[in-house]
Specification:
With 291 residues, the protein is an alpha/beta fold. It contains 13 helices and eight strands. The chain has helices at 3-8, 13-28, 30-33, 35-41, 65-74, 87-99, 136-144, 165-174, 198-207, 228-237, 239-248, 250-254, 256-267, and strands at residues 55-59, 79-84, 105-109, 121-127, 147-158, 210-225, 271-272, 275-289. Strands 1, 2, 3, 4, 5, 6, 7 and 8 form an eight-stranded mixed sheet that branches. The model is unreliable at 1-7 (pLDDT under 50). It binds S-adenosylmethionine.
């Protein structure tokens, strides 16, 4: 596909949703989404199969902080192609990489599911990006096409909502006041828990052409707010509780104060001297290109 054809290709409803609704929210909550989730991926990075000199893809790279970590791992002889469907995120990556003196990252606005990758990469990584693919098998297959034969793909995906109180707890509280989102709710794609089931994901990866598929459970405390007010506002803006709140529209606004008060009281049990900390759990999924 030429660049002109790519630019002309219609964007999926999910990519539109990321750009129009979630980019401004993620920018507002960047201190949690980058600072907080880094505590999770810090448990994964030391064991990644990345060597100096490797060519690496970071799929759904968001603000680019993992791309920068990968760039440091591969060093000046290696390179990172950091791909995201939202240029609003990539702007931060470009700026932060430049400020850090890192010049081996190319930030690219593209849909990972369809971008015509060259099969020249040793490693393809994604932290919490693949769960939002409209077509997971197509997206995973396309990521595989970025790899050399026997190249490695590692993605981090959330386990179930009950294993992730940092996302599920607030939803339960908010649902005591507001109805669940309806059938036609606007969403960011299949969602954060869509790759929680090992059997489903194994099948998706096999169909997408991977082999040597391995799962490792990663548990970590993540930072969800500088203080209780920060944590409450974060939960009402992003994630499953944020979705309930957003979809309830005016009803949510009218009940904001009582919902926020109840949430603050419940979240108080997670407050620590340096902020609000809650448990999270993911799969580190590693697979090889069978090609
Ligand atoms: C939960 S965020 C994770 C961002 C980043 N990897 C991190 O861990 O902070 C999911 C990211 O995937 C991106 N994304 C979702 N669907 C995508 C697609 N089809 N192609 C490229 N990026 C996508 C979103 O724009 C967003 O930046």
């Amino acid at each position: 596909m030429s660049n002109t054809e790519l630019a002309a290709a219609p964007r999926s409803q999910y990519v539109d949703f990321w750009n129009s609704v979630l980019v401004p929210k993620f920018v507002r909550w960047r201190h949690i989404l980058v600072g907080g989730l880094t505590l999770h991926s810090a448990k994964v990075f030391p064991s990644l199969a990345v060597r100096a000199g490797d060519a690496v893809v970071d799929a759904g790279c968001g603000f680019g902080d993992t791309a920068m970590q990968l760039a440091r791992l591969v060093g000046p002889k290696g390179s990172v192609l950091a791909v995201d469907c939202c240029d609003g995120f990539l702007e931060y990556g470009r700026r932060d990489a430049k400020a850090a003196g890192i010049d081996n990252i190319t930030f690219l606005e593209a849909d990972v599911q369809t971008y015509p990758f060259s099969p020249v990469h040793d490693f393809c990584f994604s932290r919490f990006g693949t769960q939002f693919f409209e077509n997971p098998v197509a997206g995973l297959r396309n990521m595989r096409k970025s790899l050399k034969p026997r190249g490695t793909m590692t993605m981090i995906v959330w386990r179930g909502i009950n294993d992730n109180p940092w996302l599920g707890f607030a939803k339960e509280v908010v649902l005591q006041y507001l109805p669940p989102p309806g059938e036609n709710a606007q969403t960011c794609g299949p969602g954060p828990f869509s790759m929680a089931d090992q059997d489903v994901v194994t099948k998706q990866l096999e169909i997408a052409g991977y082999k040597d598929i391995q799962f490792e459970q990663i548990d970590a405390q993540v930072f969800v707010g500088k203080d209780l007010d920060d944590a409450v506002a974060f939960q009402l803006a992003i994630g499953p509780a944020g979705e309930v709140y957003r979809e309830a529209g005016k009803a949510a606004e009218q009940r904001h104060d009582e919902i926020a008060k109840a949430l603050k009281a419940e979240l108080a049990q997670y407050e620590e001297p340096n902020g609000v900390m809650m448990n999270s759990s993911s799969w580190k999924v590693t697979a090889k290109n069978s090609g």
